[in-house]
Amino acid sequence: MERTILHMDLDTFFVSVERKNDTRLEGKPILVGGIGDRGVVAACSYETRPFGIHSGMPMKMARNLCPEAVVIRGEAGIYSKESKLVSDIIRETVPVFEKASIDEFYADLSGMDRFCKSSYQMADELRMRIKKQAGLPISFGLSANKLVSKVATGTAKPDNKRKVDFGTEKEFLAPMLVKKIPMVGEKTSQILYNLGIKHVKTIQEMPMEMMSKVLGKNGVVLWNRANGRDDTPIIPFHERKSISNERTFGKDTGDSKRMREMIRAMGENLAYQLRNGDKLTSCISVKIRYADFNTFSKQLKIPYTSADHILIPQIERLFDQLYNRRMMVRLVGVNFSDLVNGNYQINMFDDSEEKLNLYQAMDYLRNRYGTDDRGNSIISWGTTLGIANIASMGNPFNGEPPIIPAHRNA
Ligand SMILES: [Mg+2]
Known about the structure:
Dna Ligase, domain 1; disordered C terminus; MutS, DNA mismatch repair protein, domain I; five-stranded mixed beta sheet; 3 domains; alpha+beta; five-stranded antiparallel beta sheet; binds magnesium ion; globular; DNA polymerase, domain 1
């Protein structure tokens, strides 16, 4: 069946938000990221591109390449707020959409044409509404599937639109470099390059079996993508529910120290699951059930994050506000919701490369050594050592499409 899929991506999102709040930044080279010695570029304006600057680069190097650039320490809270504003505008027009990352959205417009206007016109009106109401530049691609639409958005940028007609997907992709296909990273593109494969057209002309011989299962996916085929569904935003952990104590307890340790361990475990699935949360909730079965919960909206050092203190604060009756407790629980795709990048602003490295090292060890024979995590922060772990360390997000970092297309 023929589908019509819209992909929208805010242009240089962090930079655009900064410009929205300070119009003097218009037209100037801007670097957003950690400003300390070991800071990293999280986003850069188009004016910095001719200097060879890209996101993920050490800030120090970027400053050397473009000394006249304005350097701004990003703030996750402001970006989260703007991202939600854009989500709300989209929701008014398209009730079912996927929020692929903090600045990227998909919507299924299949069958819309029959009713009022064409899907292209509809997408264009939505783009203009976002520009006007949110004050942020955004580009879109429209085609038969997510993959081609995403690539189309990339070719439209900045601040523009691109439609790829049904049946022309292959010729649209043919002249592009293979690395333009989402999922082709440095490593794959090097393998392909070594095989003399530079352009998508070459893959299109190869038999699928050959790709599968070289790259295995990924080769088959890649071959299909190179041919403009992709049947990945839209994952509606509201269905991307939440992850949670709760535990009923073997015996009701009044030991607040033990309860705190427990919810801390839960938070740690959930945050790890987020990072493992390249997800961020923006809503924490904590639950207590007293011995008389009365249950109370409290939630808190926060800027998107997956970092323990941000999440756990908030979980403890919620718990302290909740636990106010002089009664034994039967159950405690922690829940993260409002999940979107995204990685550490959003927390790069506090100049804590060491901290990010520490997370990565801990997560690596968890992945490698996992759990003991009772299912307890072997690796944890000192404060929760000794607490039996609450859930398996698996990735709850398996089966979802590969995660594209938010800055991939700027
Ligand atoms: Mg973007």
